[in-house]
């Protein structure tokens, strides 16, 4: 797996807007749509989410060569990249994915692609951000702890995103975390993910919420995953590199609590 410096260097050469999911570099034959659907169904119980995301233009299935042709990177910089987000849509790189990795990378791209404002609605997300300030003013220890964890040089407009991301990671039972995850659950169900999976995967729901918030906050940097961890970095801020990581199960989906 390429280290952060290599990913940052590749991103500088290619595109300032590209977000990537990084994985092993061994070249593999492209997965067929049948195998891709099979893994999504194995984990989620249905292929509806993938089909809907493809049909609405949120996700595309492409090979590494096709990604190069579209200007999403070079052959070298895309080596081992399994999922990629260019700031507008997500891509699953079919000749870099293994059959048991598709669902996990798809969930990763869902989190990166959809902002929390889009997931919750602009009014509810505005209220949620104001609630962060209210809880902090009242001395809520969990919110204060989350605020303290936010890197000092985080831009003002992104501090609430980062605070909520840390809160989701550190305080699963907090009222604000529950408001976020309830919204994520409804959103995932609307795009076709069954409630049976949603109810069984609380850690996965919080992980998607974190990825949504951090991708919005750190969108000028890389988002990478090696199938076991997701890492966020910013090109011009080494302190952000690897700041967040979340374990993933052998099935390719985020691990249970």
Write a structural description.
The protein is α+β, with helices and mostly antiparallel strands. The chain has helices spanning 4-14, 33-44, 48-55, 64-69, 102-113, 116-120, 122-137, 141-149, 159-170, 175-190, 195-200, 202-217; strands at residues 19-22, 59-62, 81-85, 90-93, 223-225, 230-232. α2 packs across α5 and α8 packs across α9 (159-170). Strands 1-3-4-2 form a four-stranded mixed beta sheet. A two-stranded antiparallel ribbon has the order 5-6.
Q: What is the count of DSSP helices, taking H or I runs of 4+ residues? A: 12
Based on Cα principal axes, name the global outline: globular
Helix-strand topology string: HEHHEHEEHHHHHHHHEE
Q: What is the average per-residue confidence, as pLDDT, rounded to a whole number?
A: 81
Number of strands: 6
Q: What does the radius of gyration come to?
A: 17 Å
Query: Structural class of the helix and strand makeup?
Result: alpha+beta
Fraction of helical residues: 40-55%
Biggest sheet character: 4 strands, mixed
Q: In terms of per-residue confidence, which ranges show pLDDT below 50 for 5 or more consecutive residues?
A: 1-17, 235-257
**What spatial order of strands do you see in the largest sheet?**
1-3-4-2
Q: Alpha-carbon distance between the termini?
A: 26 Å
Beta-strand percentage?
5-15%
Please outline the helices and strands.
Layout: H1 4-14, E1 19-22, H2 33-44, H3 48-55, E2 59-62, H4 64-69, E3 81-85, E4 90-93, H5 102-113, H6 116-120, H7 122-137, H8 141-149, H9 159-170, H10 175-190, H11 195-200, H12 202-217, E5 223-225, E6 230-232
Parallel strand pairs: 2-4
Antiparallel strand pairs: 1-3, 3-4, 5-6
Helix pairs in contact: 2-5, 5-12, 8-9, 9-12, 10-12
